[in-house]
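Look over this record as teaching material.
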Amino acid sequence: MHYSQSHEWVKVTNSHATIGVSFFAQKELGEIVYIELPKLGAEVKSGDEIVVLESTKAAADVYAPISGIIDEVNLNLKDNPELINESPQSSGWLVKIRITHIEELEQLMTEEAYQDYIDGKSASKNE
């Protein structure tokens, strides 16, 4: 898996990417109560807003960590947004895209680098 600095994860299978929010992000947001998903077929560029999550704490935008075409959205989240909290990196996935710029993966973090990144954020919060 790859991770972005805005706490999205990307799992690549062939020329498709499954995208969701990290455990860290869902914990920071709190209980997710509503989700706004993108339209199928939408073309997105890395950094574009693709999903809006509303929680009991705040609303948050989810950004495309990689460019592509939205091929699938997780419709289970419409009626069960809590899946994002229960299983953010499996059944709580958000969208699947057909990748158009595979080289963008090089800009994302490995799991180890992401863990170091969030550990650094947590440490600076506690100072």
Remarks:
- The beta strands are 2-3, 8-13, 16-21, 32-36, 43-44, 49-55, 59-63, 68-73, 95-99.
- The CA atoms of residues 37 and 75 lie 8 Å apart.
